[in-house]
Amino acid sequence: MPALVTGWRHGSERLGRWLGTLAWYWITIVVGSLLGLSLFGWVGSEVVEQETGGFDDAVRTWVLAHQNPQVSTAFRVITIVGSANALALVALVMAVWLWSSHKRHIAAVVASAPAVAIALFVGVKDLFHRIRPPGAVPLHLVSYSFPSGHATASTAVLITLSYILAREGLLPHRAALLIGWLGPLLIGLSRIYLDVHWTTDVLGGWGLGLAVAGLSASAYEHLRARIARADADRMV
User: Fold this and answer.
1) Residue pLDDT, tens place only, 184-224
2) Which of 113, 208, 103, 104 is nearest to 161 (CA)?
3) Is the pLDDT score of 181 beyond 80?
4) Under 8 Å between Cβ of 143 and 123
5) CA 24 – CA 138 distance, rounded (Å)
6) pTM (two decimals)
7) 3-state helix, strand and coil shares in percent for the chain, rounded to the nearest 5
8) From residue 136, how far is each of 48, 132, 142, 222 by CA, in Å?
9) Structure confidence at residue 19 (pLDDT)
10) Is the bond preceding residue 147 a cis peptide, omega within 30 degrees?
11) Cβ neighbours for 227, distance < 8 A, ≥ 6 positions apart
């Protein structure tokens, strides 16, 4: 009897810790999603009202005055690696690997993140019809400017990947934070530095991408909990 009570107590403590940890993950998801939507909504409204010109022009003037060839070369590499197509390929490769590792529910979430991000930023660009800064002309970039596709896709894909891989124990949490936040930061900054996007384009992209990452993380947590319940039912 004492052994049974002790086992029940230990089991209850483990369950309590697990529920507490899960609650913090959900809080992080909800807060992150709301922050992303708020940022995108605020910047988007300012763009519609054409209230961003002074800020965007000031940042652009400062950046152009401080450009140098070495940094430009580095940012060109970053912007190529951080393109929506490149990140979609990374997500697809990771999804195939997860699928082959019998983590099919995770693979589906990983594969959907870039698809949702690309569909959203393409659709939103057509709604806003914002013209890019002059630096985009020599590169023959004819798509609309807001929001930055690079910023949207990199935030959605890299944060989703980092979150899921950390939750699965496949990536240390510190490495996940570094990849999930530093990657989109550098990719977004590269678009400003290369004068192919306004600063508010990148801010809006970060916000939209964060909302997509939150949606992906919530889908992952839902599937993870459903699988855990199914495993528990089989053990009864």
Assistant:
1) 999 999 999 999 999 999 999 999 999 999 999 988 888 87
2) 113
3) yes
4) no
5) 47
6) 0.86
7) 85, 0, 15
8) 21, 6, 8, 41
9) 45
10) yes
11) 105
Q: Report how far residue 200's alpha carbon sits from residue 19's, in angstroms, rounded to the nearest whole number.
A: 39
124 CB neighbour count, 10 Å cutoff: 20
- Of 61 and 13, more confident: 61
Output phi, psi for 51, to 5 deg. -100, 5
Q: Does residue 10 have a pLDDT over 90?
A: no
Domains of the chain, start order: 2-235 (1.20.144)
Is the model's pLDDT at 44 over the cut of 90?
yes
H or E element at residue 6: helix 2-48
Q: Are 78 and 196 in contact (CB under 8 A)?
A: no
Q: How far apart are CA 197 and CA 147, in angstroms?
A: 9
Assess contact for 120 and 214: CB atoms under 8 A: no
State the Cα–Cα distance between residues 167 and 154, nearest whole angstrom. Answer: 19
